[in-house]
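can u do me a favor
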């Protein structure tokens, strides 16, 4: 196989910021591929890194959130999740989001690794965590745009109800760990 037959990184000949506010950071790139072809515009989203947390309480139940998701137009069950704030580490973001969305704190937080959120046109990664020994600590501390109901559900069957891909992936990454420790 020659180098011409292998994928090569693109170069960016030009980049234009389309919009940047608290909700979205979008740019349009003019790219040149390894064969010299121009691809333009190629839109790239620059969101903050994301975290998702499979939180398990002291009794072994999953702590899940139910909220409206406007992009999908549905109210759905999901895991604790959110953005990593500037200057914040992913584990700190996971603990903060758990506390804010549910009022729970974790006895232990386990980093399950990270994946690209959507490597085709997003620059961020999704960090997956397992929180064990969670206990209710305080009331929720929600953003003005959030309305979240907290539920306790069996961990093993939760995967059948998670419709967001990276929430499901966090659950899938956590299950072998839970089964190995007997925490489920």
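np, heres the sequence
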């Amino acid at each position: 196989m020659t180098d011409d037959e292998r994928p090569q990184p693109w170069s960016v000949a030009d980049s234009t910021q389309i919009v940047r506010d608290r909700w979205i950071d979008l740019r349009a790139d003019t790219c040149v591929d390894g064969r010299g072809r121009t691809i333009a515009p190629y839109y790239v989203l620059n969101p903050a890194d994301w975290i998702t947390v499979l939180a398990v309480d002291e009794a072994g139940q999953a702590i899940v959130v139910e909220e409206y998701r406007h992009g999908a137009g549905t109210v759905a069950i999901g895991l604790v999740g959110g953005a990593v704030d500037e200057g914040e580490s992913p584990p700190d973001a996971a603990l903060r989001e758990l506390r804010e969305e549910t009022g729970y704190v974790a006895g232990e937080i386990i980093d399950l690794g990270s994946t690209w959120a959507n490597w085709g046109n997003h620059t961020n990664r999704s960090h997956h965590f397992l929180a064990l020994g969670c206990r209710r600590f305080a009331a929720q501390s929600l953003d003005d745009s959030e309305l979240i109901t907290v539920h306790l559900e069996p961990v093993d069957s939760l995967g059948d109800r998670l419709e967001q891909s990276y929430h499901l992936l966090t659950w899938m990454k956590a299950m072998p760990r839970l089964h190995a420790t007997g925490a489920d």
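The CA atoms of residues 120 and 154 lie 34 Å apart. hope that helps!!
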